[in-house]
Fold:
Amino acid sequence: MEYINKIEITGRLTRDAEFKQIADEKRFCKLSIAHNHLQDKTSFFDVIAWDDAADCAANGKKGAAVHIKGHIQQNRWIGSDGQARSRVEIRAGIIEFMSDEALVW
Structure:
């Protein structure tokens, strides 16, 4: 059986994009978005984009409206205190900046 892992989400950046280039010319960009899914409920998501998607997101500023397509990824590691840690984040494949009018539905 094949499992599907896709996400498509629209929201606003909660901080300026954090762009970095690492060895082998790999580029990544960290984002955080707020998504209002009900009138009084907001969820916050960490997003990471690599290479071309990172280039697209690099100039994102806090408050910008974005539409992201990608998949969910869980990262696991052992913290400095020896405890197991994990984080679920969105791995973006496509990032589109939108006008404020496009965000209202």
Remarks:
- The CA atoms of residues 74 and 88 lie 4 Å apart.
- The two ends are 36 Å apart (CA to CA).
